[in-house]
Amino acid sequence: MTSISVLGCGWLGLPLAKHLVTNGFAVKGSVRSEEKIESLEAVSVTPFVLDIDGEIAEQLWGAFLDSDILVIAIPSKNQTGFSALIRVLESSSIKHVVFVSSTSVYADNNGVVTEDIAASESSALFQIESLFYQSSVFTTTVIRFSGLVGYQRNPGLFFQKSGRSVSNPDAAVNMIHQDDCVELITQIIKQEKWNNLFNACADSHPSKREFYTQATQRIGVSTPEFIESDTQTFKIISNEKIKKALGYEFIYPDVMQITYDEC
Question: Which intervals hold domain NAD(P)-binding (predicted)?
Answer without folding.
Answer: 10-149
